[in-house]
Amino acid sequence: MVVFAFSLFVFLIARAHTAGAGEERQVPFYGLSVSFDVKNNLLRGITSVTLTGDGDTAFSAGDLRIESIRLNGKPVDYSIKDGAFKVAGKGVLEIRYEGTFKGERGGTENLENAGVVSAGIVSEKGISLTGNWYPSIKGLARYRLTALVPGNFTAVSEADEITSRETESGREYIFHFAHPLNGIDLAAGEYREVRERVNNIDIYMYFFPEDISLADTYAEYTKKYFRMYEELLVPYPYKRFSVVENILPTGYSMPTFTLLGREVVRLPFITSTSLGHEITHQWFGNYVYADFGSGNWLEAITTYLSDHLYEEQKGRGWEYRKKILIDYQSYVTPGKDFPLKDFTQRTDFASASIGYGKGAMLFHMLKNLVGEETFYRSLKSLIKNYAFRNASWTDIEKSFEEGSGRDLGWFFDEWLDRKGVPSFAVRDPRVLVLKGIPTVTFELTQKGQFYKLELPLRIAGGKSEGKETLKIEKGKQYFEIPTEESARSAVFDGNYDIMRKLREGEFPPVISRLLGDEKKIVLYSEHGKERYADLIEILKENGFTAAVDKDLKDETIRTSSLIVLGFESPVLKRLFGEVGEPASGFVLTVKDNPLNTSKVVAYANGDTNEEVTLAARKIFHYGKYSTVRFEKGKNVEKETAETERGMVFSLSEPVEGVVPKKTLKLEKIIETVSDKPVIFVGERHSNYEDHKVELELIMELFRKGRKFAIGMEMFQRPFQKTIDEYLAGVIDERKFLKESEYFKRWRFDYSLYREIIEFAKAKGIPIVALNLGSEIVHKVASGGLDSLSEAERKEVPQDMDMADATYKKRLKDIFESHPAGARFDNFYQSQILWDETMAHSAAQFLKEKPDYQIVILAGAEHVMYDSGIPHRLHRLTGKEYATLINGEFDEDIGDYVLFPNEIKPPFSAKLGVMLDKREGGVIIEEFSPGSAALKAGLKRGDTLIFIDDWKIESVEDAKIALFDKKPEQTVRVRIKRKRFLFGEKELEFSLPL
User: Fold this and answer.
1) Per-residue model confidence (pLDDT) at position 1
2) 693, 681 in Cβ contact below 8 A?
3) Residue 17 pLDDT > 60, yes or no?
């Protein structure tokens, strides 16, 4: 059986030698004699097995050719089915066989399980035999191997002693090993040997001539590891240990040696990582064996005491543990999850995340639970009690219970028998002064099944920091924790001491999230398909669905993780606006999916087909990174996006103040910003004083002789021609208001904006309609971008940045006040579309009029914190800008915050009626208190026909007819009124305003 050992992106494998149920049981003797014809890839072998049982003995022959089988010297009838056969009887069984080993591996390479080599090789370059290279039996045996290899070869196998002699046919090796094994392996080649000694152990380095320069470094690291583990655990049980270079790309650990492939030994980090992992297996797997019937615990403890320990010694243990949590959350989907006790070997990223990652975290939590001294004392006791024997998870539990004097059944039940990991929610964290003492209070709940835990908490104050350990004993608990001073923040599990689900702020967008998603799509364009053909096929072989980028719907984007090939994809423009020019070689970057942050969107670009092909398979080994770049297949850049460390909650924000005597007058602010290509003014639509500020800015820019336009959120792009005609004097004001549908689409009192528009008309200042047609915005708010027709899609920007997390959070807060039943995703898309359209409208004007400035008037929420229109317009034009925000104050809300005194709006004439458009016309439905219309004699149900000489065909017409009326002025209102039995009658009334 094989145990898989995971270290960085090289998957190293420990050969598991499993003892039987007690050393007392007699095990068979297995003599094996082999010779080789390396030119023809041929092995010839003779086995001699002592059979002691009364029943059948099963043998696995694989693809070997069995020439004869004799029991006690007599021929035995046998039949081979599916590479296996059985022999009945007792005595000495002799099997003669042959096998051809060319190092060929059938089927598609499993990129999630790299380093697993099932094929052996016999060649002039070397011999590597670790699979079915002899007729093997299940269970333990005592092996004696004799191997005749070419005279220029050196051979290595499991052995405490090795003897060899020269023969006419080559060099004969005899390998002596005193303990039972469940299998044996052999490697041979033209090795150069370096020999060292440490703690009475002979250390051998066997490397090919071209790599012998690595031997001294490997020897020094090997000696370091043996000193460390003999002190940390118990003395090494064997007399010798060898590091052997393999011609196949493997990473195996067997008793007394480790077999590392050429590609592996040449990697510069292997000595400081994976070599130590394999040496740790000499204690766990090659000294104490695993009872695989109850689960493989070997990789968990080996990972914890090697890969993790090395990072812990550097002060980076928390980073390693966080990566374990990231990998688990990325790869272990519900369909791939299973209890830790059921792990036997790694077959993919998900099984590795459970067996290696979750298993290592079990031992970390166990160490924190019982204490470090008890932890290592219990491990030493386990090794001594189960040397060369099976040990199960139950035996580990027993060892730690004896070492700690505590009942640990609940702990092992939770972490071995369950799928999944704990998930925490912290509700209403705050600081209260209770009985005169500042106290941090919060409610902690576990989502899903309950775990009994000790959860670390760090509370940071102004000058101090406190640490607590929360004993979690219920699914929901309320905590009150006194502090010495007012606390600023609470950080739960900042060192990642608990195996748990990460919160969104902790979970970076990394390659592993893309590879591990159950629903993942590779998107390509038709013109770029050839360049990325190899990568597309590799991704399809590993669970991706391939699709053409222009065909993708937003709902598919929302529910999938994507890798987009080529930086010019329309999907990237829809999501991120722009992603910048790609660097040379092959680049892959992963970001959160703006439509669903539980998913990711990756985009990749390769300069050539060769660059793509050379990097295609390697990206599977860089799962912990957010960005990787390769040149000619060599990694030259890698980076992981920064995220929060621990579950971080703010308890109080610093209070800020301003010094009024240092404030600036509006004139000085205008002077400061007047040369900016873009000036944003964030208004409160119904506050007349905000519009007076806008007018003063516009008038001052005009006085300075600036060439500028006014961009207005209040007007929609389809009506730009109407605006231009009014400013040019082609149509009058009433026709302008009617044809621009101002009162229908904006609805705020026109008198608030009239002075600005009239000044622009008088001075020849262009006005730019910024906004999108409200029909499209409302449609997207209801059904998302996917609801738009092909014609409507042509009216909206093709590139949109949906990745502004801060803006998204603000919109989420606004959304909470919307009616139930609405979907935030659609609301978010509609707001992004709104802002992007305004940014694109302004950008188009600046492109056509590069010598102009533009003053943009929009609601403050579209301008504040730069995240509505400003950043988008800057993305499109690169032009500098300034932001002026009316009436709101917060840090970074804008470049300048204005507090104009309240000004009463201009007079706005009103009839005092509520109107409704029906089939018969515009009907009076109700009257407001003190209504002039009611006093004049109008009634409910009257149909308006004219106000003065303006025909009333819509509710908006009534507003247009009144917009320029003055106080005390009288208007004539003509109506139609239904009469009982006598039809309709037209009446005219005079109404004083």
Assistant:
1) 30
2) yes
3) no
* Inter-residue contact 444 to 426 (CB < 8 Å): yes
Tens-place pLDDT, residues 100-118: 999 876 555 667 766 555 5
Tens digit of each residue's pLDDT (9 = 90 or more) over 495-516? 999 999 999 999 999 999 999 9
The C-alpha atoms of residue 616 and residue 619 are separated, in whole angstroms, by 6
Q: Which domains does the chain have, with CATH numbers?
A: 2-287 (2.60.40.1730), 290-417 (1.10.390.10), 423-504 (2.60.40), 509-639 (3.30.379), 660-898 (3.40.50.11550), 913-992 (2.30.42.10)
Residue recorded with tokens 């660097």: 583
542-545 contacts, C-beta under 8 A, 24 or more apart: 542/111, 542/112, 542/515, 542/620, 544/520, 545/520, 545/521
Axis-axis angle for helices 393-404, 409-417 (nearest 10): 150
Query: Cβ distance 677 to 854 under 8 Å?
Result: yes
How are the residues of the chain apportioned to helix, strand and coil, as percentages rounded to the nearest 5?
35, 30, 35
Whole-structure pTM value = 0.86
Q: What is the mean pLDDT of residues 197-213?
A: 97
| Alpha-carbon torsion, ordered 79, 82, 83, 86, to 10 deg | -40
For residue 186 the two structure tokens come to 């052999």
Give residues with Cβ within 8 angstroms of 295, minimum separation 6.
340, 341, 342, 343, 344, 392, 393, 416
Q: Is the pLDDT of residue 319 over 60?
A: yes
Lowest-pLDDT range of 22-36, 728-742, 826-840, 869-883: 22-36
- Structure tokens given for 719: 């009506």
CA distance 883 to 673: 9
